[in-house]
Amino acid sequence: MNPRSCDLLIEAGWVIPVEPHGVVLENHAVAVDEGRILDLLPIAEARLRYAPRERVELPQSALFPGLVNAHTHNPMTLMRGVANDLPLMQWLKGHIWPIEAAVLGPRFCADGAELAVAEMLRGGTTCCNENYFFPDAIGAVYARLGFRCRLGLPVIEFPTPWARTRDEYFDKAAEVHDAFLGHPRVSTAFAPHAPYTVSDASFERIRMLSDQFEIPVHCHVHETAREVEDSLREHGQRPLSRLQRLGLVNRHLIAVHMTQLTEAEIALCAAEGVSVVHCPESNLKLASGFAPVEALRRAGANVALGTDGCASNNDLDMIGEMRSAALLAKAVAQDAAAVDAASALRMATLDAAQALDLDGEIGSIEPGKQADLAAMRFDDPETQPLYDPIAQLVYAGARQQVHWVWIAGEAKLRERELTGMDLPGILARAREWRERIVRLPRPA
Amino acid sequence: MNPRSCDLLIEAGWVIPVEPHGVVLENHAVAVDEGRILDLLPIAEARLRYAPRERVELPQSALFPGLVNAHTHNPMTLMRGVANDLPLMQWLKGHIWPIEAAVLGPRFCADGAELAVAEMLRGGTTCCNENYFFPDAIGAVYARLGFRCRLGLPVIEFPTPWARTRDEYFDKAAEVHDAFLGHPRVSTAFAPHAPYTVSDASFERIRMLSDQFEIPVHCHVHETAREVEDSLREHGQRPLSRLQRLGLVNRHLIAVHMTQLTEAEIALCAAEGVSVVHCPESNLKLASGFAPVEALRRAGANVALGTDGCASNNDLDMIGEMRSAALLAKAVAQDAAAVDAASALRMATLDAAQALDLDGEIGSIEPGKQADLAAMRFDDPETQPLYDPIAQLVYAGARQQVHWVWIAGEAKLRERELTGMDLPGILARAREWRERIVRLPRPA
């Protein structure tokens, strides 16, 4: 039998395909051709069967599906740590909103997104669920850099530099959606900000359009107890009930945060196929509460992981977020077996892909899927000795140990070096934005 | 004025002295001579005033006091991630105890401690509060490598390879204490395992001897609700009340975990000068509970940070532990202002030094103290832009960005390279222990 030619053969000490669940394959190889995974097989067999144009040997590393950050506001990377340790409203009104009012525009969003892509790739993240203004500018960055994403089409009931009126938000949403229609890596989602900032009328319009466009609806829901109380007062309903009344509680819904949930609401999410995005570090930092992650998972709901934006995290580190999610879920559930390492990894890959309705294409290492892959080296003292590769990845590994990343078979990180990105330029622009932001007047 | 000669001048973009609290000094230098901090002053002045034998320029880095890990079982680094996601008793009885029974000895403890020193130094930790068997072997490693520690003198009411009888535990404790008496870096502490494994008689003996030796008493206390319930049944008292009855609740006591505390117990800790060691990641991973950190701090109790051992964490990462502590405290206290970044750093440095009764010597960058220092570079994309160096260190920084570390003015890490340590040999021994451990019979 003649070996079959292919673009790439990655040989790893351990391959963690995510599907089947919890499996680790020792000394396996992934063959890639035309951007897709062609095969997953033992290295010895792969060497007989394939004649790759490029071979990457990673005997001390684990290869896993590229991580999918299911909730982020990437331009806010330029506001990393600009205000910390403050109650939510003081943080928003005293810092975040005044800064946004002064800097928000396509240049800020593009520069922030590009810094975020550098950070995400250096940490094994290959896809994100973006949620910010100027999606046209952000999407152009992702398209240029070949980064995969669901681009949020923002809707909020007040004027911003992106749009002034409700109609303008919807017109621009349709425009951006059309601009990326059929793009191989950049697709869209509606991104109504939250039940407390979006009207019934807009939600109804979103429901209709999301059905028509066949795209998800990405929304902050039940982030805090205060949000639920306010909704009860204003609408006589909890936010999730209101969304249900408006026809939005279905498998299109990506409900982010969800720290306040009754048992009935947990059952509802499972029954209706809602995807919940858990952002443990943001929920902790803003003292928003504890999402009932294990209860949701046991009920059969899909739970994905996200970092939230860098103004409230303060990073886009999905490795760290997996660790935080796995650790926190145990204490919240009072059960050390809750959210084991393999489940945390699944929440950051295949379950996140499912939330984004991209699980047919990404989220696991299976033949036919896009070759979105990441490798973490385990030969540092921080990850030795090695007993359990999945536990090592989640509980001891660091994003700095991620040394190779591919999107659709293109190497985006080669032995820690970003390809096709001007990192000095990106950092110089980040410093320029910092100079502008620190000079802004802010309340004490 | 002629410049004064000194051993070392470290020039940093930012110096975070920890005392005074919350201060960041831009473009400052630390002058070091004979192992101690001589001066802390602006770089421009330092260049006029000092003629150093070595100058280290770190314009993109923050210099901070070496981190103090207030609770660890370092030889267990060889069991990193050997069993995960299991309830405490299944984890102990099914995995940890059978492994310890098979491997525990001076060689295992020395090899594990050496791997731990490599990991700690690479993450900015310069001192630890050790708690494990064979302190003679562990202490010899620390002494040889020049690592600072409080060496726990273990006491437990059952036979182990270290000692068979109560008297043997105490005889060996006295021996080890004497062996390190007057050592410049290695001092001792009594380390009774926990109230549920140590008798009243032993606690009374420890109280007497710790007074005589003038050393702290390092003990797991109120780790779980179960421990408190069992004590009520067996002793008719909560463990902390029992320790109080036995005269141990005083400023010698280093009480580790403390997830279960009444308001009266919080007030007692503050009034008696007890140091509480908070191990957030271990408490989460074993689902032990949430320590009331902010309530303790507000009451005026000293709270230090520790990682616990690598079998339940799974790392010795004090940067990550600061982040976990700061994030978790906010959600537990329902207050985003709880345990701010500067407080988290203090808990990992000066407050930890105070717990170990070493705050006269270490824990802050103040003239006269030991030059135990660490530097983190901020020029990676993960820590750009930079608004607040302390928040960046705690909320965005990673231990992999720590690039220089000194203990008593000796460089232990130089641009990420460990000095005076045989890292390949350490890793080879770790792999040998792994081979032994994976071959041990373990219950399914």
Describe the 3D structure.
Two copies of one chain form a homodimer. Chain A folds into two domains: 4-65 and 371-418, Urease, subunit C, domain 1 (Roll), CATH 2.30.40; 67-355, Metal-dependent hydrolases (TIM Barrel, Alpha-Beta Barrel), CATH 3.20.20. Chain A contains 16 helices and 16 strands. Helix content of chain A is 39%, strand content 24%. In chain A, the strands form three sheets. In chain A, strands 3-2-1-4-13-14-15-16 form an eight-stranded mixed beta sheet, with helices on one face. In chain A, strands 5-6-7-8 form a four-stranded parallel beta sheet. Chain A has a four-stranded parallel beta sheet with strand order 9-10-11-12. In chain A, α9 crosses α11. Chain A has 444 residues and is an alpha/beta fold. At the A-B interface, α3, α10, α12, α15 and α16 of A face α3, α10, α12, α15 and α16 of B.
